[in-house]
Amino acid sequence: MSVGATTMKRVSDQILDALDPEQRRVATMLEHPVVVLAGAGTGKTRAITHRIAYAVREGRYDAAGTLAVTFTTRAAGEMRSRLASLGVRAAQARTIHSAALRQCQFFWPQAYGVDFPRVAENTFGLVARAAHQVLGSSDTALVRDLDSEISWAKTSNVSAARYPDVAGVRSVNGATPAQVSAVMAHYEKQKLTEGSVDFNDILMCNAVLLSEHPEIGERIRGTYRHFVVDEYQDVSALQHRLISLWVDGRDDVCVVGDPNQAIHSFAGADAAYLLGFASDHPGAQTVRLVRNYRSSPEVISSANKVMRIREGGPSALRATRHSGPRPSFHGEPDERTEAAGIAAWMKAAHAEGTPWSELAVLYRINAQSPALEAALTEAGVPYTVRGTERFYDRAEVRQAVLEFGRVASRQPQLSPGEVMGQVLGGLGWRPDAPSGQGRQRERWESLDAVRTMVGEEDEARDGWTGEQAAAWLQERASWQASPVASAVTLSTLHAAKGLEWDAVAIIGVREGLIPFVLSQEEPALSEERRLLYVGFTRARRELRVSWAASRGNATRSRFIADQVTGPATVSRQTKRGSSSSKSRACRVCGNLLHTAAERKLSRHEDCEVTYDEALFEALRAWRKAEADGASVPAFVVFTDATLLAIAEAVPTSEQDLLRLPGIGQSKVKKYGGGVLGVIEGHRA
Ligand SMILES: Nc1ncnc2c1ncn2[C@@H]1O[C@H](COP(=O)(O)OP(=O)(O)OP(=O)(O)O)[C@@H](O)[C@H]1O
């Protein structure tokens, strides 16, 4: 064996060293189609990226001929980044839509003599026009439901003409199947007239291209010979058809998924493709991953219970991590109290050393977040809502990345810091944050995040050039590797899929929200159970589950019934009761207070405070004097929550003050000097 071969061998052995025996089977079984049934947190992403790296190192795969298919841009970015860290940069990791679009844009002109149509990114406007034309209404909720129904029909290979036959009991905001079908037909016609396609059309067009033009099919199949498909439980009929056309009966395919995390059937996904893979592919091998590397045994046991999986049974997750606290369950009289409890819990976790970025609150629907946001703002907990817009897709971030590349290549003598200075100056960024919360502020924060990210990397590298920094930034953007904000994440359960945090709170775990009121029957009901399971399995160490009465009574979710003792139903209290119950909650741990002394302190005597109480008292005295002097109520000067935030942060400059919630330029102008004086006096 040559020295080169020995080195190669050693590298591929090292790749396998990072895997457990089952993951190793996934990585090394290259002769057969492989289906991996991987439980949550069992390292499926690790297993498949290592499979690709191992096969490339062993000379079995040509990196450029390998396509890893994912279903979200984030997952594709993560896959690219992991492959790059294993030294495999040439392999393609793409979402199915991006892979299909690339092929269409390249081959369409050869097949049909015209460019591939423009992709309509936002179909809402088109559906609204069609709804207005056909139904005489473009009510937002109706259009939203029609938009997702059309998407469901298309991913399920159901045409407008066939829709009424298959619609069954599907409900679309009161529209009849015939009406939905008519809107769909109108929508398709509009797209044709304006020469655009939607996301689902990309997949359909690609499938047509492959079936109508065998010579192009051959070229595409010649380009991609090895396939790995992640999240296979989420493929739809259309996606399954396209993937089958790409693979075309070859053995070089590995699909990975978790039937317990199938949560997209409302969008046309069908886990039957995952479960039927072995019988559909002769010679296919099945590997089960059940060793969980993410969560404590307590979190896993609780998650297994949600799914009613028998401990020790074949599909039960097995813990490998250290023991941690038992998940806690809380029924609250109202959503405000629930949100305040979460805020207090997060502050306590943060005070104990958990970074804000390692905390998350998950919920079933977006409408649950405003109450929570208000409580977190009041408590001074920084948060970020996981939105639809991705960091690198924001106009200002795209512009900054682009400009950075331009400046660095035009003036290669500049350091990364100097390049950044020019870029930010050109984009009108100033070190002082604009006050308020609008678009201006968002733009400022995005650019500041890019600045900090490059600045931190620059500090860690010796002799880094502007051009190297530009390439680094470009690569981060292609991986969708957003800067980690020092903030708690708020997210729907759906959007939390694939992510993990040290401590996770799930709110609104009550009947009507989870299972959702419209999902009370099978198969939707089981999907709700899986959704909660996805939420539970995001937590590494701490899990806090709560529910609250919104109007009248609320009953905790049936999915946690066997884990909770105490009354199943909580009642919303009268106004008086509600405020007294609020004052009876500990502001540190969120649990009820028992003694008069505790109520005065607003916390349990043994719950650690997260701020200097003497400073807080000094600030209160100052506030009283200030308020009395101006004959205004104390909260006009600062609310208790803001004073607490000041006492916790101990700001030493006006800039520090401006970073605190509830404090803008005008407050700083009016009271900044006074507050900073109190702090200085207190320190002295
Ligand atoms: N063999 C292993 N040894 C140690 N840690 C591992 C191993 N495999 C995976 N992990 C760790 O376990 C965690 C989960 O891995 P990964 O993200 O690959 O899981 P997943 O199966 O894709 O999760 P999910 O489907 O729940 O999103 C990661 O933090 C990963 O680094």
Can you tag this structure with a few keywords?
single chain, 684 residues, alpha/beta, 5 domains, six-stranded parallel beta sheet, binds adenosine-5'-triphosphate, DNA binding, DNA_helicase_UvrD-like_C
Write a compact overview of the structure shown:
The protein has 684 residues and is an alpha/beta fold. The chain contains 29 helices and 18 strands.
User: Strand tally, please?
Assistant: 18
Considering DSSP H and I runs of 4 or more, what fraction of the residues is helical? 40-55%
The number of helical segments is 29
Number of self-contained structural domains: 5
The backbone outline, from C-alpha atoms, is globular
What's the CATH first level of the largest domain?
Alpha Beta
Biggest β-sheet, characterized? Answer: 6 strands, parallel
Across the major sheet, the strand order is 3-2-6-7-1-8
Bound ligands: adenosine-5'-triphosphate
Mean pLDDT: 86
Rg calculated over all Cα atoms: 28 Å
Question: Could you walk me through the main structural features you see in this protein, from its secondary elements to its overall organization?
Answer:
By secondary structure, this protein is an alpha/beta fold. The chain has five domains: 14-112 and 202-289, Rossmann fold, CATH 3.40.50; 121-197; 328-390 and 481-571, Rossmann fold, CATH 3.40.50.300; 393-479, no CATH class; 596-683, Orthogonal Bundle (DNA polymerase, domain 1). It is 50% helix and 11% strand. The protein contains 29 helices and 18 strands. Helix 15 (297-306) links the parallel strand 9 and strand 10. The chain starts with a helix and ends with a helix. Bound molecules: adenosine-5'-triphosphate (ATP). Adenosine-5'-triphosphate (ATP) is lined by residues 19-20, 23, 38, 40-46, 258, 293-294, 498, 537. The site of adenosine-5'-triphosphate has 16 residues, from helix 3.
